[in-house]
Specification:
This protein has 735 residues and is of the alpha/beta class. The chain is built from 28 helices and 18 strands. The strands form 6 sheets. The chain has a 7-stranded mixed sheet.
Length: 735
């Protein structure tokens, strides 16, 4: 922070970049070291191009790569994993987040708006004084962790003051009087925050932004750092400014818009071994919460809740992402305002059920106060704001596990035995036998994933501490323990199940066609899968069109979805991690359903080999034939209060929401889903015809934004396979 180049752009009011300029991003060789080939791809690809000059390549070639070879976290992770773990990983049974990024999904509370970093440093010094070096065997480690926290906090203060100095320099030379005053104000702001508590609305936003930069400089949190409930955090500053006459609504909006630009200009560091498809336009995910309830359980919607939605609507940026927390305590005017933004067609805001989130928090032992002050981060994953280490460790491919079950533990793509020998399905005499075999395979891979992740958590604790994040999270200072060692009040680890629609429809088809109606034998279905239904379209069309499907409020299929979910929950929930916390269930794919589809052969629901899996808890593509109300009734049959997040996508044709009546109906749909116990829902409002036109003529649709998973992206900047998957989602024509 003493040597980073300082950038203050022309006309900007909120200052600070992670790198020397907007849209630049650092590498993190201590996590995963890029190859020269990676840089050449970055420098030459058409979309999401990063310029990498020859000097940078030379430094990497001569110094960085030789030094970090064998020492990166990625190297350490793969070196420590068992043969069985690696076999499952390479087969595409599961992914591992922490082989390319630091643990993320942290969410901030309001502490930085009430206190400055100097106050936290004082807390750290007092805690060091309290260490018992005579009786505490961990005294040395505690002292080292606390000293590191103080150094990190001082570093961020230094960085802010360097911006103040730069702004002061620029003000002296600035000929324009208005800009001169702005630069002088920027200097004043940066001298005060985040060293001290912010005094006004401007300082509050700038203080958060420096803290955000500190976190994303320390860690490659590619999967999310979030400010929490921005409307509640900033409301007192907003009211104070309006009352004193030092702030107007329009200027508050301008400062928020400047903040939007800062978040938007932070692209995620590209992965190693990158391709355009695997590492396209991802930003550093940042989800802004609005609405919900206060700590007293009352309606938390305020003036800033509406202003933030207004800014979101006008800016139309893919990041930050805005969500509303919706409780029965919140007014319909707030929901309808959010739907007005949804109607703009760029996939924001997403909708979350505050009441079900609180129920889940209380179920796992959080206090009522912390539960009410919590909510989602990144895509959909929930955490206690400012008090929880929320770690997403990776995705599990449910349809792949069924495929392995149908081949007695063998992966037909590679011919390798990666699972258990649970029997030849041709000999199964009942559906219960099949599902029991699937459960055994699922349990084996869950165990394998947890076993590996427990090692990975210890590797991060030993080799990749995060002292600045530790300053921000209760109770790391109190416990004198780093964030990665379990210093936070709560320490949850999530493993995301993927492909609910695909695996449910596959099991349903086997139950219906093989065991109930006996239309086909198991051998006939397996032979059809082996040839990818070649010369057997009758089999495929029967599996697709003559079998019950999840997403249509049909208990035949939906009960199987419940069985899959309950099995996963029983195998995973509450198991201890290595940080004093527990493993929890989470159902979202981001974009991994594309990759998982590539490594999964044809499935018994009629899906062909290599095609994408269903996304989130959404039905299989085109299989939700009874309208959106049937979808929400099916999705609500699993117990969302047993998860840390579920993701439900729906797509509507624009004309459906063009009228007040249509928007009112959507509001009723959302309220109904949440009353049924749903966790999350989000919408694309676009026609498939328009998306196909954008594929053909991308130059005419550069501003087209769609909801992908828990984030939005420019449609023309994502890979064709992902484009095709979004086009294939059912476009509802009514309610």
């Amino acid at each position: 922070m003493e040597n980073k180049e300082i950038f203050i752009g022309e006309g900007e009011l909120i200052v600070g970049e992670r790198d020397p300029a907007p849209r630049a991003t650092p590498t993190y060789p201590e996590l995963c070291c890029h190859s020269i080939s990676d840089f050449e791809i970055c420098n030459s690809r058409v979309r999401s191009r990063f310029k990498v000059d020859e000097e940078a390549k030379e430094v990497y070639r001569e110094e960085i790569i030789p030094f970090w070879q064998g020492r990166t976290m990625r190297d350490r992770v793969f070196e420590e994993m068992s043969e069985e773990w690696m076999a499952a990983f390479q087969a595409g049974v599961f992914t591992e987040f922490m082989e390319q990024r630091a643990p993320g999904h942290a969410i901030l509370d309001d502490k930085i708006y009430n206190r400055g970093l100097h106050d936290f440093i004082q807390d750290i010094r007092h805690r060091i004084d309290d260490i018992d070096f005579f009786n505490d065997p961990d005294a040395y480690y505690k002292e080292q962790d606390l000293k590191a926290m103080a150094i990190a906090a001082e570093a961020v203060i230094t960085y802010a003051k360097r911006h103040a100095d730069k702004a002061k320099e620029l003000a002296v030379e600035e000929p324009d009087l208005q800009r001169k005053k702005e630069l002088e104000k920027i200097a004043e702001v940066c001298y005060n925050v985040p060293a001290n508590a912010p005094r006004d609305f401007w300082e509050a936003i700038q203080s958060y932004w420096f803290v955000h930069l500190g976190v994303i400089t320390e860690l490659n949190v590619w999967d999310s750092f979030n400010p929490g409930r921005l409307d509640q955090h900033l409301q007192s500053f907003y009211e104070q400014g309006l009352e004193s006459g030092t702030l107007t609504r329009e200027f508050a909006k301008e400062l928020l818009q400047c903040f939007w630009v800062k978040i938007h200009n932070q692209p995620a560091p590209p992965k190693v071994g990158i391709t355009e498809e695997a590492s396209g336009t991802y930003q550093d995910f940042s989800l802004f919460n609005t609405g919900g309830v206060t700590v007293d359980g009352e309606n938390a919607v305020n003036d800033l809740s509406y202003l933030i939605l207004e800014v979101c609507k006008e800016m139309k940026l893919i990041m930050p992402s805005v969500c509303i927390q919706l409780s029965t305590k919140n007014p319909d005017t707030f929901l309808l305002k959010a739907i007005d933004v949804v109607n703009e067609g760029f996939g924001q805001p997403s909708m979350f059920n505050t009441d079900i989130i609180i129920k889940e928090f209380l179920r796992v032992g959080k206090s009522l106060e912390d539960a009410r002050n919590g909510g989602p981060s990144g895509c959909v994953t929930i955490g206690a704001f400012g008090k929880e280490s929320v770690i997403l460790t990776g995705y599990i491919n449910w349809p792949k596990i069924l495929e392995i079950t149908l081949h007695n533990g063998n992966d037909p793509r590679t011919g390798k035995q990666v699972g258990l020998k649970t029997g030849d399905p041709r000999s199964f005499e009942s559906y219960d036998q099949l599902f029991d075999a699937f459960r055994k395979q699922l349990g084996y891979f869950v165990d394998l994933k947890i076993q590996g992740n427990n090692i990975i958590e210890r590797l991060y604790a030993e080799h990749m501490p995060s002292p600045f994040m530790s300053v921000l999270m209760d109770d790391c200072i109190k416990n004198a323990k780093d964030y990665h060692r379990g210093g936070s009040r709560y320490n949850s680890t999530y493993i995301q199940g993927v492909g609910m629609g695909t695996v449910t429809d596959s099991l349903t088809a086997l139950k219906h066609q093989v065991f109930d109606t006996k239309r086909f034998t198991m051998g006939e279905v397996l032979d059809g899968l082996a040839t990818n239904f070649e010369d057997n379209d009758v089999l495929r069309q029967t599996l697709i069109n003559k079998s019950p499907k999840y997403g249509n409020d049909d208990d035949y299929a939906d009960t199987i979805a419940q069985d899959v979910f309950n099995s996963y929950f029983e195998m995973l929930d509450g198991r201890p991690n290595t940080k004093g916390g527990h493993y929890r269930v989470n159902l979202l794919p981001t974009t991994v359903h594309i990759y998982f589809g590539k490594v999964t052969g044809a499935t018994p629901n009629g899906r062909v080999a290599g095609a994408p899996l269903s996304d989130g808890i959404s039905p299989s593509h085109g299989m939700d034939l009874q309208g959106p109300t049937a979808v929400i009734k099916s999705a609500a049959k699993i117990d969302h209060s047993k998860t840390g997040g579920t993701l439900l996508n729906q797509k509507f044709l624009p004309e459906i929401l063009a009228t007040e009546e249509g928007r009112q109906k959507l509001a009723s749909l959302i309220r109904s889903y949440f009353e049924l116990g749903g966790h999350h829902i989000q919408f694309n409002v676009v026609s498939s015809d328009k998306l196909r036109e954008a594929q053909t003529h991308p130059e005419l649709h550069k501003d087209l934004i769609v909801r992908v998973a828990g984030y939005s992206d420019h449609f023309c900047n994502i890979g064709k396979e992902l484009q095709d998957e979004i086009i294939a989602r059912t476009a509802h024509r009514g309610f």
